[in-house]
Amino acid sequence: MQPWPAADADHLLVTAAAMQSLEEALFASGLPVAALMEKAALALARRMLRQADDLRRRGVLVLVGPGHNGGDGLVVARELALAGVPVRVWSPFDSHRPLTADHLAHLTWLGVPRLEVDPDPADGSLWVDALFGLGQRRPLPSVLERLLQRRAAAGGEVWSVDGPSGLCSDSGRPLGEVAACCSRSFSIGLWKQGFWQDAALPWVGALERIDLGLPLARLAPHLAGLVLGLGPADDQPGPLPAAAAAKHGRGRLRVIAGSQAYPGAARLALEGASATGLGWLEAQLPEPQASQLWQAMPHVVLAPQGAALDRLDAVVLGPGLGPGGALPDDVVDLPATLVLDADGLNRLAAAGEASTWLRRRRGPTWITPHPAEFARLFPDLTTLPPLEAAAAAADRSGAWVLLKGARSLVAAPGGQRWQLAQASPWAARAGLGDVLAGYAGGLAALGRAADPAVTAPLLPLAMLRHAMAGLRLVAQGQGCADPLAVARQLRRAPLAPCGSSCASEGEVLP
């Protein structure tokens, strides 16, 4: 089966090491370093010249580093100058790599001014950050940190060439006290995974990829095991039951949720599950929610406390259960998919040795922690960047891990990972996690009923559709993405077979 989404330049998220390995392969093939620099910088200059009138009015200052990122910036400066944009360059370094030094000399010959003193942080021109770019490992020099801090405080605009200076392009975290605070960052060639992490969002601004037309089929050995990014255009058909399937053949799900303290969580999880269109939905709830449920959701069957879990395709356990208590003993041997969320995860963490318990599970397990819940489950992994932490937890526990955040991600055992490219802070509110848990459980039940052997990435699909529902509602107004509205929006997901279009395990490139 083909990977989902397509393993192309729009979707691959690379580490600095992977990108550098890819570049080395291109150079070993005979492509000159200077040719790749020209290709990248010319593509970036063409993108910037879409706003030529604004750039001519404001002017541009290019901050030039000593390496090839600085060389990229100098080529951009050359092209902008030749197009009539007022350009200046500033480089606080005494020496530069030979190719960068050549471009700096050529700009001097063209008459492009080079500042001899530090630029004014309140300068009204657009600053182009070409100081360090990809693969940074050390904090910025203190003089540059102070300059960039003053630029941010003055409200001056900065665009970055292959990432803000001072930001790790793998983790998305500043390497020192600060990084360049950019309103726009251009990722050259492929997406750098760090730019999509929650920690990077205050620094990168709007993200754009500058396409280089890389021959990915020839470079496949350098791209194995990378992250696939999910954007709104990547929605995928879900599981389709057999034509003659009755209600029990369209997925059977039980939701175990709710408490006196959190009476609404169960309703929200059930609304999320209902949005999938599964055939049989039952709930195990405390009173008085159980006796009142029929008024709001008459299609949901009440399961008595302790009812057997056999004959189910999936179980959602945890939304709003409240503190205390233990996980039911019978879920360990349950062959159905178990979705553990919220207080289900907290009860697992309180019992200790979460990975051991998860490994004992007979059927597939999906866990949906936010960062604090993840820290309680896997305290030794919290210092890792989110993608690495989730992947390590998945391998250790054998569970699929959906780590929630501004850009949520899913890691499967074996290394395959998916991350959201878009979401909105206006859709972040209490109760949305309950909707997501129910919706994921519904997809799991549908998928198992349709074909238990299919290893489709239904948890990433649930994550994507949930985010897309929020984005569509936010587009209607900042107050529109309440949990019930998101559940209703999820009912509009495409109805078509998952089939061969879903990703196969461990496959990155065809």
Structure report:
The longest helix has 19 residues, at 432-450. With 510 residues, the chain is an alpha/beta fold. Mean pLDDT is 92; it is low at 497-510. α4 (68-82) runs parallel beside α5 and α15 (458-474) packs across α16. A hairpin with a 5-residue loop joins β17 and β18 (417-420). 35% of the residues lie in helices and 14% in strands. It has a twelve-stranded mixed beta sheet. It has a six-stranded parallel beta sheet with strand order 3-2-4-5-6-8. The chain has helices at residues 16-28, 33-48, 52-58, 68-82, 98-110, 142-153, 201-204, 263-274, 289-296, 343-351, 354-360, 371-377, 386-397, 432-450, 458-474, 483-490; strands at 12-14, 60-64, 87-90, 126-130, 158-161, 184-188, 191-192, 206-210, 227-230, 252-256, 280-284, 301-302, 314-317, 337-340, 365-367, 400-403, 409-411, 417-420.
Short descriptors:
alpha/beta; 510 residues; twelve-stranded mixed beta sheet; 18 strands; 16 helices; elongated; six-stranded parallel beta sheet; disordered C terminus
